[in-house]
Amino acid sequence: MSNRVAIAGVGMSKFGELWDKNLRDITLEAGMYTIFDAGVPGSDIDGMVIGNMSAGRFTGQEHLGAQAVDLSGLGDIPAYSVEAACASGGAAVRHAYMSIKSGEHDVMLVLGSEKMSDVNQTEAMNTISVASDWEWEGMFGATFPALYAFMARRHMMEYGTTEEHLALPTVKNHANAAHNEFAQFQRAVPIEVVMRSGMLADPLRVLHSAPITDGAAGLVMCREDLVKKYTDTPIFIESSAQRTDTLALHDRKSITTFNSVVSSTKSALQEASLELKDIDVLELHDSFSIGEIMLTEDVGIAKKGEGCKALEEGITEIGGKFPVNPSGGLKARGHPIGATGVAQIVELVLQLRGDADKRQVDGAEKGLAVNIGGTGATSIVHIVGR
Amino acid sequence: MAEQGVAQVWRRIRAMYRIEGNKCETCGTHFFPPRPVCPECRRKGKLENYTFKGLGSIYTFSIVRQAPDDFKRQMPYVVAQVELDEGTRLTTQIVNVDPEDVEIGMRVRACFRKIKEFGHSGIIVYGYKFEPVMKVTGHKQ
Ligand SMILES: [Zn+2]
Fold it and tell me: Of A95, A155, A335, A382, which is the active-site residue?
């Protein structure tokens, strides 16, 4: 294919509870790192898109597209802001992909950003809940962790998944994040600590859940024929796919599989003329550990019900056949909602370029990211290659 | 915030108080909450109002131990997906039961309860919760 979309550079802010920084600071930080990494002159950038879930509730500020272009000094270029709950970052990447593919834009700055730590716990919980069906789930007391607990409880009943199993993604992802200087939690946690952590919504515990995080991430994306001007190590988007499921979890026939993930993964692989066995590294949306277990099955690494087995056998560790979340994932890198989907691509680009230091997956050539919104109502899959 | 609006709750009270949804007469599928379009039949669908009997079984559940302020006084509370006998599921609290006794498959029936208060001076939201059939009739079914 000659009209592929290329990634010229990547960058991100530190992820964590950044008390001394506001939404502007972290967005600008990620944007600047990204532009420097890409080596793109600001005057070449002809469009900007930002993924964000809920700045209006988390910080009081909306209209983030204009804000980002303004403070980056990018002039009067078009600025787009896109939202798809926890998949807002993936939606921003896909927006840029489609814009460049269509010929409307040539070089775009893609950002994802969320500042979550400025509100109290109640406001944070309610804001996260609006990613599911607020009127028919959240309003009746089903917190976001409770909805994932619904899935976990069924997965345990249908497939014999245990409490030990639920701890495995956390243990793996924390060990990976220990080698990621941008991660929120750069330390390993023993399984006993995960299994003793406070209960959020039975059977899910605090350490099964992604944290509240501030952070931003960015990419410079451009036409394939332009990228050689900027970098010797371009990465290409092989495919982009998106699917939708019911907004409310209770409207799905099965709640132990994400249909939107199954179909978007299939579509992305097909579009890229690849099979899963060709993928060397994956970033999967582990907002809760049961999510990573289900996604391991839904993308096809393991058969349905055997996601835990893949984890136990080390298949998804760095060095395994299908390394999942070498960055530390949402659990340990952190989950600034709108930034996550972009940060997943940042990690894959670092892996494919061979820039991932101690968490490097040797010789990685193709990477796949799954970014989901809500409890799976949106699934966005990207495949990147070098 | 929008979710504290009186109108936003008031316009849903038929569904929240009586479990009133709808049924597609073309394919026979029941919907709760009521759907504007049957996703199977679309323009061939024929939606009629339908009041659910309020009987069903627990499909999955959780015990909530960290909740927003609106629900803090109720913690720990059981929230579940109940599969109604007509075939659709809804999300609701399970009350009148020790949380440790709740299990998948337990027969439950609807009751009318206070759902939450929007702070000290906010409106009070009422609607359905579910309780074990056993507690009301003395029989598990
Ligand atoms: Zn129908």
Answer: A335
